[in-house]
């Protein structure tokens, strides 16, 4: 009788561990964290500043690895994620889990020792929020997962600010709020044109559970709210004219691009151009808005 060969994981490379950190997402996390650090009043030694940003990156990467460890079976059911290291069979689940725990724990410890206890606490909270509250609890249970879970990606500028000042004031809270409100229209724009993936994987994303019509209305509603929230740093005089004008223009374009998404009632099955345009702009928007914040700070200082 011939034995049936069993599948064995392919040799793990450093690229697979790097892929676990979700580098494209991490780039946005690192950038907003750096923006918070540079925009904060006061100064920080360049070595300590670099250390703080490195800790933010490590913490985000560790949380992403834990997310993929937990969701490896789900990722294998989705075209968008099927080629990740775990569903593709290039890595053992235990290795991904251990890597995520090591990165997360190291990031918090170094932040505590080198920077500030409050920055370390908020970093630990952000990791727990994403890896446990969002990944394990919210994502598989409610279509509001992105709304509530949006806080996970909103922590970096707050952490960067704390690394410089050692405290939490209204301004970094507003930076947190901007990303928190930005997350639903950003992610739902994506979910609208990959909703089949989520449906196949059994994830209750808004377009799957509540339908496209409800999702589109909420995309538009959150975009309008984002317009107002993005102006608050300027209105409270926490940022100057460069930021204020930039927020007005960038957020106005965000709303303008969300209108054809929000008011759309029918569409050809192969046409999702408004949704893809909004998703692409939402990424550019956050980079541009926080760049304006830093530029404003540099001019005023």
Topology summary:
Layout: H1 14-20, H2 23-39, H3 46-70, H4 72-75, H5 93-114, H6 117-138, H7 145-149, H8 155-165, H9 170-193, H10 195-201, H11 206-209, H12 212-235, H13 241-262, H14 273-300
Helix pairs in contact: 2-3, 2-8, 2-14, 3-5, 3-6, 3-8, 5-6, 6-8, 8-9, 9-12, 9-14, 12-13, 13-14
Catalytic activity: heme b + (2E,6E)-farnesyl diphosphate + H2O = Fe(II)-heme o + diphosphate
Enzyme class: transferase
Function: Converts heme B (protoheme IX) to heme O by substitution of the vinyl group on carbon 2 of heme B porphyrin ring with a hydroxyethyl farnesyl side group.
The major pleated sheet works out as: none
Order of helices and strands: HHHHHHHHHHHHHH
Query: How far is it from the N-terminal to the C-terminal residue, by CA?
Result: 79 Å
How many H/I helical runs? Answer: 14
CATH superfamily of the largest domain: UbiA prenyltransferase
The multimeric state of the shown protein is single chain
Low-confidence stretches: 1-8
Give the proportion of residues in helices: over 70%
Looking at the overall shape, the CATH architecture of the largest domain is Orthogonal Bundle
Structural class: mainly alpha
Shape: flat
CATH domain class of the largest domain: Mainly Alpha
Strand proportion, as a percent range, falls in under 5%
Give the beta-strand count. 0
Mean pLDDT: 88
**CATH topology label of the largest domain:** Tetracycline Repressor, domain 2
Specify Rg, calculated over alpha carbons: 20 Å
The figure for the number of domains is: 2
